[in-house]
Amino acid sequence: MPKQQGLLGRIRYASAMTSQPRRRAYTLLIAALVVVALGTLLFMRFHAPPEVARLLPESDAILYLNLKPVRAASHFDRQPVQPSPEYAKFIAATGFQWDRDLDRVAVSLHRMADPAGPNGPVAYTGVLEGRFDAGRLRQYLQGNSTGRELYAGHEVYTLPGNDGRTLRVCPLGYDLLAASNMPLPEQIHSVIDRYVAGASPFSGSSLLALRYRQVPYFAFAWGIGHVGLPFSDRGRIQVFGLTLPLSEDTDFIASLTYRGTVHLRVEELAPSEADAGQTATNLSTILNLLRGFMPSGGPQQDHGFQQALQSLTVQQARSSVVLTGDLPAQGLRTSAALP
Question: CA–CA distance from 267 to each of 155, 190, 206, 300 (Å)?
């Protein structure tokens, strides 16, 4: 009997010694899987579009601006800006100043069926992220609204816009605000629906899913889709009175990235290689003409503009045309201090 007990003891001891490495291996395997899963989630979260952009409805184009790096680089919030009388009333009532309190903004552009109609050629839906005084903002909206709607637990205020169009505004959370001047409320309802659903890193409009992966990493400002729509006139794109050889239906991926200087990149996605070649030729001709008319001397701001103009290059890659250039940091400071 003692011999049998000794044999059983040795078997149990051997089994325990064998199972210990197994348990350690299982523990290490589980820990490794958890680390890989967390790493994958963090990677996908890092490369996901910003929340303010993911909340936007279906649209023809999306514009995005992150003011945090602009504010850090230019300190434009320290330079007092003389507000218009209407904006001064808004500041006094809400305490919100865009140059100090606005962090991120994304705007979707919606083409109107009748460009000559009361809503103009383009309408907008935007989501703003920043620091809001919820009580003062709600009091301002209640005092200036012409109507209110409760949708999915959120109040939507209807305000008369400065351009005669209806403006709908909805506080989403303590740091998010949605607004739209579309004729009907479907777009702002879509924003609320996405917010209530949680706006996962994989959500967003079809345009965002299609084009955001082509936006350069660390871009503090970008636009995708028909971003020429706000500048369109009779089907063509006009910038500073200059008609560009591009249709308003042209798809773009435009971005600004800070690398000591502000790096500009604009890519046109042309319908064909021949169209891209024509665009590249036309843009190169326009740049050469502008450089020829630019005076060699002049004020400092003209010198900075001349440097930026000289840095612009046009390259064609099959059916796409890429315009790149570097803007001086001083230009970032000047352009950020908007009136």
Answer: 39, 29, 19, 29
Give the model's confidence band at 70: pLDDT under 50 very low, under 70 low, under 90 confident, else very high: confident
CB 322 within 8 A of CB 266: yes
What is the arithmetic mean of pLDDT over 93-107?
93
Domain ranges within the chain, ordered by starting residue:
1-46, 50-219
Q: Is the pLDDT of residue 154 over 50?
A: yes
Long-range CB contacts (< 8 A, 24+ apart) of 276-280?
A: 276/316, 276/318, 276/319, 276/320, 276/321, 277/316, 278/245, 279/245, 279/246, 279/321, 280/314, 280/315, 280/316, 280/321
Please say if the pLDDT value at position 65 is more than 60. yes
CA-to-CA separations, 214 to 66, 179, 294, in angstroms, rounded = 18, 27, 33
Query: Alpha-carbon distance 247 to 26, whole Å?
Result: 61
